[in-house]
Amino acid sequence: MVVLVSAGAYLAYQNTLPTTVTSNYANGQKDVPTDGRVILTFSRSMGLDALKGGFSISPPAAGNIAAVSGDTTYAWTPAKPLADLTSYTVSLKAMTDTSHHQVRAIHWTFTTVIVPRVTSVTTSDGTSLTDGSEIDPGATLKLTFNDAMVPITIKVNLGTEVPNLQWAADDRSATFTTTKIPSGPLVVNIAPGGRDQTGHYVPAAFNLKTGIYYHDHQHTTALPYPALIQIPNDELAVDQNGLQAAGVVFEYLAEGGITRLTAIYQSVPDLIGPMRSSRFISLKIARHYKGLLFQSGESQATASRAAQDPVPQFFDTIGYQFRTGSRYAPDNLMMTGPSVLAAENNFFSGIAPFTVPKARPTLTGGSGAGSVSVAEHYSVYTYDPVNGTYQKNESDHAYSDVNLGQPLRIEMLIVLHTQETLLNVGDGHGAHIHDFNLDSNGAVQIYYKGLGYQGAWASTDGHGPLTFTVGGQPVPLPPGLVWIDVTA
C-alpha cells in the first residue's frame, strides 16, 4: 500500500526536526593546520550570541567567532596558532536557534599537523641555551628537533661558517662544534625549508643569538660588595694565585720601577695572593669601587692619606690570612675565598652591597690590535683569537694563574693615561712614591676582541666607578677579567 504525503505535511514534519550542524573537519581528522579555522554550518539561522555561549574547545585556546555567510555559517579563528601534533575537542552545548528549534549537543575531535622545529640547543653538559646565553670557545652544541628530520635538508649557519652536522641514529638531533668560530657575538641560524621524514616542512627560520667568550669556571665565593686585594708584582711574586677570577685589575708603578696590582673581586676564588701593602692610588680605587681594601700593612704616609678620606681597610689578621711555605717572604701572605667573605661579614658588615657594573660592549670602528705594548709597565699583550682574550707578557715573562695552571686571559685591556706625580714621603731616607690622579679625566686606549679604540675616561663621582667612552658613547666593562694599566 502506498501512502501519499502532501508537501505541506512533509514540510510540517521537517519543521519538527532539530537544527543540524556540520564542521569543515571530520571527527577524528588528522593533520589539521595549526592556524586553520573551525567552520560551523547550521541548517537553520543561528544567533551569534547563543553560539558564543555554547562553543568551547579543549585544550583551551583563545579565538574569535564571526559570521562567514549570513547567519547560518560561522568560523572560529584561533588568536594564535594551535599547538602542533595535539588533539583538540570542539564542543557545542544544547541550545536553540533563532526560530527556537533545538540544536543538540555535539562534539568532535581533530589532531593538528606536526610542525618540524628546533626544540632546544644545548651544550655538552646539557645546559639549554636561550637568546643572550654565552658559550665557551670550541664548544660542542646539540640541536634537538621535535621529529625525525631529513638531514640533507637542514642547513645551519654560524655567522659565515657552515658547520658539519653529526646526526643521531634517530635523525632527531645533530651536534656540531664551534672550534673555527672567532670569539664574539654569534647567531645560530637554520633557514626554513627543511623537512621531516613524513614530508612536513620547517615553516620559519630559527635564530639563536648567543656569543662565544672565554669563561673562568673555577669555584668562587660570592661577596656582598667588592674585595680589593693588594697584590705584589715583583719577580718573586709572579705567578700569582687567583688573578683570573678578578673582575678588574689595576696595575701601576710603585717604587723602584716595580708595579703593584689592585685586584677587584665580586666573587673570590679559593686562594688569592700573595698580598702586600697599599699605595695612595689603592685608596682612590677603593673609594671608586665601594669595597673593602685587603692588604698586609701600609706606610705611615699612606695611613695619613687614608685618614683624610677614610677607606675601609683589612690588614694582616691572625686567623684570616696565612703565610705559605711555597713562596719566599715577604711575598708569601695568602688568603682563602671563604676567609675574605668572613672578613667582610665579621668586621665590615655595615658596608652597603655593591656590584661593579658589567655588560658586553658594542664597539665599532676599531683598528687591528693583535699586539699591544705598555712600555711603562714593561708589558706586551698578545691577542688570542681562539679564546678572544689578551695574554700578558711582562719583562719577558708570560703570565699565568697558579690556581688554574693556565695562561692569564684578559677579556679587555685598558691603557689609562693620567697625571703621575712623584712624591717625597719624608721618611728621612729620600723615599719617593708614585701618585696618580683618578679623580678627573683623560685619554684611554681600549683593546677588545683584537681591535683598538681611542677613548676617554672620567671620574664623575669620587665614590663611584670610573666611566669610559669611545666616540662619546659609554663603554661598559665586559664580564671576565678587565686589566687597566694606569700610566702617565
Your description of this structure?
The protein has 488 residues and is mostly beta strands. It folds into three domains: 95 residues, Immunoglobulin-like (Sandwich); 95 residues, Sandwich (Immunoglobulin-like), CATH 2.60.40; 273 residues, YerB-like fold (3-Layer(bba) Sandwich). The chain is 9% helix and 40% strand. It contains five helices and 41 strands. The strands form ten sheets. Strands 19, 20, 21, 23, 24, 27, 34, 37, 38, 39, 40 and 41 form a twelve-stranded mixed beta sheet that branches. A hairpin with a 5-residue loop joins β15 and β16. The protein is elongated and about 130 Å long. It starts with 6 loop residues before the first helix and ends with a strand.
Which short descriptors sum up this protein?
mainly beta; 4-stranded antiparallel sheet; Immunoglobulin-like; YerB-like fold; 488 residues; 12-stranded mixed sheet
- Can you tell me the CATH class of the largest domain? Alpha Beta
Radius of gyration: 35 Å
CATH architecture of the largest domain: 3-Layer(bba) Sandwich
What's the total count of β strands? 41
Overall spatial form? elongated
Domain count: the total is 3
Please name the fourth-level CATH homologous superfamily of the largest domain. Answer: YerB-like
Task: Assign the CATH topology of the largest domain.
Answer: YerB-like fold
Helix fraction by DSSP (H/I, runs of at least 4) = under 10%
Alpha carbon gap, first and last residue: 122 Å
The quaternary state of the protein chains shown equals single chain
Largest beta-sheet details: 12 strands, mixed
**Overall average pLDDT:** 93
Strand coverage percent = 35-45%
Low-confidence stretches: none
The count of helical stretches stands at: 5
Structural class: mainly beta
